[in-house]
Automatic annotation (TrEMBL):
This is Uncharacterized protein LOC113214793. InterPro entries: F-box-like_dom_sf (IPR036047), F-box_dom (IPR001810), LRR_dom_sf (IPR032675). Coiled coil: none annotated. Gene3D superfamilies: Ribonuclease Inhibitor. SUPFAM superfamilies: F-box domain, RNI-like. It comes from Frankliniella occidentalis (Western flower thrips). Transmembrane segments: none annotated. Residues 27-74 form the F-box domain.
Length: 508
C-alpha cells in the first residue's frame, strides 16, 4: 500500500512537466485573442496600420469592416503604388457613405474616417447617424472610375475635384450608384471636350443635389516682354477661352435626366449659368454665380424656395448682372434670398413687389454701397420679412448699428431677427460700452415684434463676441421656448463665428 507522499510522487512523475511561461507566450499570436480583446488592440492602431491589419487576415478584415468606431478620428492617409493597393484598403474598411476624390498626378492615397452626422433630408427631425467618409487621391479619371465601381451602390455623397478630361469615364461609372443623393463635380478647366451624354432614361432614384464648379478661369501661357534697354522678361498670363460647348451639353444632359427630382442645384461659376434652363420647375434651392457676359432666366422655376446669387469678380459697383437675373424671378413661394453684391439700385429693386413672399434676406455691402433710405424702400416691398442679415458694412458712416436702428417701425412690421457684423472695437468687456448699444436698445424696445438683434464685433483684445439683444428673459427655459432665439442661432452665413457662443442681453 502506497503512502500518501509516495502516491503524490508517483502521480507527479506520470504527469507531463508544465511548459515554461516563456514558451506559452511565444506561441500566442494576435489572432489567438478573443474578438473583444482584439478590438482593443486594433483601436490603438494608426490609419495605415489598421488597413494593413485588415488586409493580413480574413478574421481581422471582418472586424475592421464591421466596427466603424475603429476608424473614428483617424489621422493621416495610406499611400500605395497603384490603384489596386488603394482598393485593398477600401475593401477592409466599413462601407463608404461619402467619397471625396482628388485628381493628383502620380498619387494613390486614401484616408478613411468614421464621423457622426445629421441627415437633414429626413424630416421633420434630423437623424444623427454614423457616416463613413473616404478621401482618396488618384492620378486620373480612369482610376477614379475604378474606385467608384468598387464602392458601388452604397455611396450616398460624392465630390470629385480637379476634373479635366475623362468626364465620360466618371459618368459611366456613376450608373450603378443607385444610392447617390449628392454629387459635386469641380473642374480644373472649362475647355475640355466631352462627347458623352447622360442617357435620359437613366435616373439615379435618390439624387437630390448637384453642384458644379469650374475651379480654373483659363489656361496659363507664357509671353515675352522685351524692352530694348532691359533683359528679356518672362511672365505668365491667363488666356480666357470660351466654355467648351460639348462639356456644357454633357453637364446639361445630367441635369435634364434628373430635373424632375432635383431639390438643390449649385452652379458655382458664371460660365455655368446657361445650365439654369436645365433645372426643373420643382427645384427648391438654387445657387448661382453671375457675370457681365452671360445671362439666364428664372421664370420657369416657380417652386423655388431659396435663391443665392454670387457676383463674379469684376467691377465692384456693378450689380447689373444680379439685377437682370432677379428681374426674371417669378417665384411665388421664394422665402430666402442671399446676395453677395448689392448696390443702391439693386436694393431698391428688392422692394418692387415681385419678391413679397420673402421671409429671409441676406445682403452684403462689402463690394458696393447702398444707403439707409434704399433699405427702407426694399423693406417696404417685403411685408413678410422675418430675418435680415446685413454684412460687409464695417467701416462705413453711419455704421451698421446706426443704419439699422434708424429703420422705422412701418418698415419692419414682422421683422424678428437682425444680424450684422460691426468693426467697431470696444475698449472694454462691458456691453454698454459698445458704441451701438444705445441705438440697438432703442430699436429693440420700440419694434412691433419681439425683435432679436445679433451683433458680432471685436473687443479691444481682438476677441470676437456674439451679443443677442432681446426684450425677454435670458432664463434657459424662456430661451428654449423662443422660436426667434432658435432662428437667430441659425446664422449659417456667418460660419467663421459659429463656435462663438451667444451672450444674451435682456433689454428693459
Amino acid at each position: 500500500m502506497l503512502t500518501r507522499s509516495r502516491k503524490k510522487a508517483t502521480m507527479s512523475a506520470l504527469l507531463p512537466a508544465p511548459a515554461p511561461m516563456k514558451d506559452l507566450l511565444d506561441k500566442m499570436t494576435l489572432l489567438s485573442l478573443r474578438d473583444q480583446d482584439l478590438l482593443q488592440v486594433l483601436s490603438h492602431l494608426h490609419a495605415k496600420d489598421l488597413g494593413a491589419a485588415g488586409r493580413a487576415s480574413p478574421r481581422l478584415a471582418a472586424l475592421t469592416r464591421s466596427h466603424p468606431s475603429l476608424w473614428k478620428d483617424l489621422k493621416g492617409s495610406a499611400e500605395f503604388d497603384n490603384v489596386e493597393g488603394l482598393l485593398s484598403l477600401l475593401r477592409v474598411a466599413p462601407p463608404v457613405d461619402r467619397l471625396y476624390v482628388y485628381l493628383a498626378p502620380y498619387t494613390h492615397a486614401s484616408e478613411v474616417n468614421s464621423i457622426r452626422s445629421s441627415r437633414e433630408w429626413r424630416p421633420p427631425i434630423p437623424v444623427e447617424v454614423v457616416v463613413i467618409t473616404a478621401t482618396v487621391s488618384v492620378p486620373d479619371t480612369k482610376c477614379c472610375a475604378t474606385v467608384l465601381r468598387e464602392l458601388g451602390r452604397r455611396l450616398e455623397e460624392m465630390e470629385i475635384s480637379g476634373l479635366g478630361r475623362g468626364l465620360k469615364a466618371i459618368f459611366r461609372s456613376l450608373r450603378h450608384a443607385t444610392s447617390l443623393r449628392s454629387l459635386r463635380l469641380r473642374f480644373q478647366s472649362y475647355f475640355s471636350e466631352c462627347d458623352f451624354r447622360w442617357p435620359q432614361a437613366l435616373v439615379l432614384p435618390r439624387m437630390h443635389t448637384v453642384a458644379l464648379d469650374f475651379e480654373g478661369q483659363g489656361f496659363v501661357g507664357r509671353v515675352y516682354d522685351c524692352d530694348e534697354d532691359e533683359e528679356d522678361e518672362e511672365e505668365n498670363v491667363i488666356h480666357y477661352t470660351e466654355t467648351e460647348p460639348t462639356l456644357l451639353e454633357a453637364l446639361r444632359s445630367l441635369l435634364l435626366a434628373h430635373s424632375q427630382q432635383l431639390q438643390h442645384v449649385k452652379l458655382q461659376s458664371a460660365r455655368l449659368l446657361p445650365l439654369v434652363d436645365s433645372c426643373g420647375s420643382t427645384l427648391r434651392q438654387l445657387s448661382v454665380e453671375v457675370g457681365p457676359w452671360v445671362g439666364a432666366e428664372l421664370r420657369h422655376l416657380r417652386g423655388l424656395n431659396r435663391l443665392s446669387v454670387f457676383a463674379e469678380d469684376g467691377d465692384e459697383a456693378d450689380a447689373t448682372p444680379v439685377r437682370r437675373l432677379l428681374q426674371t424671378c417669378r417665384c411665388p413661394v421664394l422665402e430666402r434670398l442671399d446676395l453677395s453684391l448689392c448696390n443702391d439700385q439693386l436694393m431698391r429693386d428688392l422692394g418692387a413687389g415681385a419678391l413679397a413672399s420673402l421671409q429671409c434676406l441676406w445682403v452684403s455691402g462689402a463690394r458696393a454701397s447702398w444707403r439707409q433710405e434704399s433699405l427702407e424702400v426694399a423693406l417696404a416691398g417685403l411685408p413678410n420679412l422675418r430675418s435680415l442679415g446685413v454684412l460687409g458694412l464695417q467701416g462705413r458712416t453711419p455704421g451698421p448699428a446706426q443704419m439699422i436702428s434708424r429703420l422705422s417701425n412701418a418698415a419692419i412690421p414682422k421683422l424678428g431677427v437682425v444680424v450684422f457684423v460691426d468693426s467697431v472695437t470696444c475698449k472694454s468687456d462691458t456691453v454698454t460700452d459698445y458704441l451701438g448699444f444705445r441705438d440697438l436698445r432703442d430699436m429693440v424696445l420700440r419694434a412691433p415684434m419681439q425683435l432679436h438683434v445679433v451683433a458680432v464685433f471685436h473687443l479691444w483684445n481682438e476677441r470676437k463676441r456674439h451679443f443677442l439683444f432681446s426684450r425677454h428673459s435670458t432664463v434657459e427655459s424662456v430661451v428654449a421656448s423662443c422660436t426667434l432665439c432658435a432662428e437667430a442661432g441659425d446664422i449659417g452665413i456667418l460660419s467663421e463665428f459659429k463656435d462663438i457662443p451667444f451672450e444674451r442681453i435682456q433689454l428693459e
